## 1
Amino acid sequence: MVTCNETSLAKTTELFLELLRFPSVTPKDAGTLDFLAHKLPHFTPVRIDVAETTNLFLCRRFGEGPHLCFAGHVDVVPSGQGWHTDPFEPVVKEGIVYARGAQDMKSGVCAFVRALQEIEHFEGTLSVMLTSDEEGDATHGTIEILRYLEKVNMLPDMAIVAEPTCEARFGDAIKIGRRGSINGVLEVFGVQGHAAYPEKATNPLHLMASRLEKLAGHCFDQGDAHFAPSLLVLTDLRSGMEVTNVSPGHLKLMFNVRNSTKTSKEAIEAYITSVMEGVKFTLTLSQSAYPFVANAKASIVRALDEAIASVCGVRPKYSTAGGTSDARFLAQFGIETIEFGVVNDTIHAPNECTPLRDVEALKEVFVRVIQTLKETV
């Protein structure tokens, strides 16, 4: 990794520690958005607040070239128990800062704000998209900003979501896509009865016994170069009244499928319906996220890859692993979207932490991405 400029590191550290002091637990931004708007005075701010969620879009147009957006969230999960220090009073020990949001994702927000402070020219448009509701339902967050931008014909061409993506060391992985997420509730109906007279009842547990092995861990596809197989994961099973002399009349099974682009909600419904043939049941499926993958040859992917190699001295692997993020919303609007941020190993945990030099290096990566795009447009 290149040696950090100590003056720049000091500025990044100051901004990072200030950000971490805001107790911005979902859906409250606690003043963070106004603070960040003030840090980028040359960018035009637009607030798009809905219900309790606060959203901010910052934009600076330099020329006729492409529109690159940096996106993220300022909200954090509740601190929880087990902290060694105050989670909203950051503490630096041996170059590592401890605070809620240190990884997820005020590190990323700090890095791209610092990068944009340093950029004096670009051939197109640079912008920032921030919400206070990514860790919650995300109903009124990034999606509302995108709807607004679509109405005013301001949707970005490409975006970097600065979520923590690295695995073992900074620079080792970027997300070029995400799996979708499909939640399912399967209810099976029988006839309740006395356990001593099974012939007079229809026991849904017995009906499901031979069918569970056809559902648990079922692979709907074999995956591909970008995605792991779409796997049915059982998450909850309940039936009966916790007694031994009554056979139940109802069973409820819950599951999740993190699906690739090869498996749809309709395919899952068709398979489960075939497994449940001959049984009275209901099935409810809801898709909270759709799978997407960026073009690995897109200019933003190539620019980020080169910037990471230059700053970190490694070539990142391209990944689609993990849960969902707001990148799913940007991809739905046809925006070429990738994710890159610090190491992800303490997010949502007590004593969440990240090295300050990684945050500075992330800033430098973003600066070089902008410069690379400027040179190629």
## 2
Amino acid sequence: MERGGVIIGIHGLANKPPIDEKTRWWKAAIAEGLTRNEGLIAPEFLFELVYWADLRYDTPLSVDDNREPYRPYEGAGPLPTGEEAPTTTAKDVLAPLYAGIDRVEEATGVTLVDDLILEHRFDDL
């Protein structure tokens, strides 16, 4: 007996649209990738979304406030990969965070990260 697989999606920390809408978008994006990159016609797959925004937020994100709706790729053929795709490094992602920490430290004189490290003991590690 062959056992089927399931694709599991786990969303990030920010508030999200309602689970049914978010699930629909993820499934559409995955199906688009399988069609464009693997040549599958109307791919069928099992998908489960680990949705936990409702544990962090009182109400789901409204349609007007959503910055990340699914939109089909407008180009033709396979989705961009490798050198065609934009490259984002961890440094690119973390740079605004570090800049924000620097601004807070300069404005307050409090060194958040340094103080956090110095105030905690890690004897139990």
## 3
Amino acid sequence: MSRFLISCGGTGGHLSPGISLAEGLAARGHEAVLLVSRKKVDARLLEKYPHLRFERMPGTGFAWQPIQLLKCAWSQAAAFFFCVRLIRSWKPDGIVGFGGFTSAPIVLAGRVCGLPVALHESNRVPGRAIRTLGRFAQRVYLPAGIRIAAVDAKATRHVGLPVRREIARVSQSAARAALGLEPDQKVLVVLGGSQGASALNEWARAQLELLAADGVQLYVVTGLGKGTDRTVELTSKTGATVRAHFVAFSDRMGELLSAADLVVSRAGAGTLAELIRCETPAILVPYPQAADDHQRANAAFFERQGCGIAIEQTEIERLHAEVRDLISSDWLLQKFRGNLRRLDRANALELMLRDLEAMTNPPADAARTETVAA
């Protein structure tokens, strides 16, 4: 049995794969502690996992403004000493970081304490934390075809994003019944990622009547702090009642994506992995201010694989026409679903679990070779 510290806080895109990995490790007899931030999104999501152990660590994200930069440096130093104390008290066998501002303190603390470190990057453009810390890691997991110049090729593994076990495709009828959606009306889901997306929320509110007129029911996850839960009733051209649901947060993503005919979404790697797992076609609107423009790269890859289409936020006036054309084309939706199914063949979680076990428990011959080489 091995023990792992998993850094995964700050956004749902980091936290979700961390939870998936922790559950996978537990199923194989290992122990894990998940290091999360003190942000609301972390607190809300981890409520669903009382069987896992979480530690909320100090730390804030990087910023160039002098005051914010000073605050970041101070909080990261506090987080580093927090991690050193945790390592010395719990004595883990390995460290896993999923990027973001919670990764640097634990990776550096792990190196100081002589522990093997693994990092996972799920975006097509690696983030600052992974690019900076990758040279200190024994393993760096990257999307297929992506490399980081500073990372030794021997340390690189090409692995997708581990998806939580409850994110799985179920029958559309069962999913709609569970969510209180009409079984015979088309369903459009709008997602802005764990933080929400004001531009997509505003678009959805502006399209209520047009979508309802076509008999399309709407389900919008607005993001915490971006609106209250409510349901709006409208009427279609045929006189049928059509509902639009607005919720601040959803912890039922497997059912929600299974219920949808089509999703309009940002292009974070976590969301794309869940779309692929649930075989749900999407129109992606990349967040234009995303670090290193990584969402545009993610969306372009998704589109090239024939899983949906991408639209720039500056062209959001095109979105209604694209939604209307795509959601009414059952043939094209089925073609997209087939392509999504093809992308989900590799089991990223299983690959990571086996490799982490090898990293923390190397074969005797390999360990002896490393000792001699040193």
## 4
Amino acid sequence: MNAQAVRGRFAPSPTGALHLGNLRTALLAWLFARKAGGSFVLRVEDLDIPRVRPHATSKMLDDLVWLGLDWDEGPGIGGPFGSYFQSARHAMYEAALAHLREQNLIYPCYCSRAKLHRLASAPQLGEDAPHYPGTCRNLTSEERRKRESAGERASLRFRAPETPIRFIDTISGEQFEPVADVVGDFVVQRSDGIIAYQLAVVVDDALMGISQVVRGADLLGSTARQLALYDAMGYPRPREYAHVPLLYDMSGERLAKRDASEGLEQVRNSGISSEHVLGALAASAGFWSVGMPATIHELLASFDVAQLRNTTYSLVV
């Protein structure tokens, strides 16, 4: 693999249909990679098995194909860095945990969500809280044995670096975050045994040679934690991050799967063409005229990253 070749990706979760916001992010990720002459990888993030919905993966892939968003590696194609389903990559995550454990960079945490709520007196806190106070960081081996013998289930937390993380985002510019102060030690394996997103995405992107990460702006706040893991694992960091603006509906609400935001099924059933959907997605991102249909090749020819800084958020198909 050419070390300088751009390798972009889209990594959806099959927890429901891709809504139009997901699809716009997929379009932008594809355009970023193709404009740079790079390859495009599709990965299915299906680690959280209880939340995976039947047939969601096949529907996601079908929607991407319908829009003309092809991929060079991934489901149905394969590739040298498979599997392209997270549920089949557990051995790689376990190896990463073993590496961090050898460096004493992870430790068991017995704090339940309820306990973190009480400690912080903040109802929004969860297992991966905005700032973890380090409650279990320095427990002795005997204290851990007592908790485990009492049936307490532990998550695994990564010891946040004291050195601040710096990186450049193509959309948002220079970023600076002292992870230890902002979020503290964070979860890399949940108490139910499921590998946390922060670790899985780093292992996958690193081992798949992903050099360009284009995703929604809601994940900008996760990047410093992920770069801390890159550094701890000795992985080279991706050369480019671009956190693209989110898509909102006409009432100003952010589209989200949990809110049953509309996917493509109704749009496709109504007879609207893929060119009209592509044109609407591109217009909402600021680099295409409103109301104008477009082929994927026309969008690639006109794509201008700089225009994403002034994105409009409404979408009319």
